[in-house]
TrEMBL record, chains A, B:
InterPro entries assigned to the protein according to its UniProt record, in alphabetical order: Homeodomain-like_sf, HTH-type_TetR-like_transc_reg, HTH_TetR, Tet_transcr_reg_TetR-rel_C_sf
An example molecular function term from Gene Ontology annotations: DNA-binding transcription factor activity
UniProt DNA-binding residue ranges: 37-56
Name of the protein in question: TetR family transcriptional regulator
The keyword Thylakoid belongs to this UniProt entry's keyword annotation: no
């Protein structure tokens, strides 16, 4: 019994290790080449295709798990940012700490947008979006931000500006060092009261 | 000789018709389900898979042709918009005439972003981007728009706002009738001189 339990435990540990490897490999492969195949991802992970398919029945299932992981890691990083105090200063801290994360997730999210239903993409973003929404609403309530435009639209534009900055940096039109100032100035142009 | 030429001509006309059908079917299928397969697209087009592969050697090649077509059609529509006169009024006309096009192209462009190299996506957008750039530069020169932020950044954010509006409408958070006013107000918040 003890041996069997140990064997099951070892097998489970193996599976966890293979899943971790597959997800890491998928992030690497899909970021480099969005149309990367399951065979390429298995090779990068150093596991067999059969093993990969054993854990993820389809490429769509793997893409879903990859996006969930990337968004979750981003959300964990954001959870470290102090969002208390002056809403404007808090939003600036949030932007400076998050634009790189949005940029890193950009290719993976583009793959997901092309392969997963829009509702799934939205539900994956629920937790980071809620964090941003709470902050912007606090700023609207205390008069830091304008409240004559829907809060959902303000969040959408903030997200799009972060996304756009990543694309401009990738295209070589914005220097990475300039991106946080550019994003912050643009977001405050949108949120400051007139 | 005459018969042969006629036969070649008929064959060519057939090919053109099949390519048109394939592209229309691909726009329909990829907009509905971004991961649509070549088999599904052939079925929708009412042509055989072998015929489809005869014109487009791979799904990537087909996606490339689809995006080129969607962008070209959008660009033709934009060419009808009068961009002369007051730059602010011209930009408002451009936005009101283009946000739907950007929205319709959104899913197809997401598929392309996941499958084509970024340089290719950019070069496909060269013509509409040049149109917008000329207008914004004219407005910067005559003092209609602020010129203390890079013009490429202003174009990028304009594009992102249009893209974001389409996504918000698709998500049911913005009514289609409200979208043009919301986009216009947001874009002028960014471009107006302080």
């Amino acid at each position: 019994m003890v041996r069997t339990t140990a064997a099951v435990g070892a097998k489970r540990a193996d599976a966890v290790r293979n899943i971790e490897r597959a997800l890491d490999a998928a992030v690497t492969c899909l970021s480099a080449r969005p149309s990367a195949t399951m065979a390429e991802i298995a090779k990068q992970a150093g596991i067999g295709r059969v093993t990969l398919y054993g854990h993820f029945a389809s490429r769509t299932e793997l893409v879903d798990a990859v996006v969930a992981r990337v968004v979750e890691r981003g959300d964990e990083a954001l959870a470290q940012v102090d969002l208390d105090g002056d809403p404007r200063a808090a939003l600036e801290r949030l932007i400076r700490n998050s634009w790189r994360l949005v940029d890193e997730a950009r290719t993976v999210v583009a793959v997901a947008e092309a392969e997963l239903p829009p509702e799934r993409i939205r539900s994956l973003h629920d937790s980071p979006a809620a964090r941003v929404q709470a902050l912007i609403e606090r700023g609207r309530d205390d008069g830091s931000f304008r409240d004559d435009t829907p809060v959902t639209w303000q969040i959408a534009v903030l997200h799009q500006v972060l996304h756009g900055a990543g694309a401009e940096v990738a295209a070589g039109r914005v220097a990475p060092a300039d991106a946080p100032d550019l994003i912050t100035a643009t977001v405050f142009d949108l949120l400051d009261r007139r």
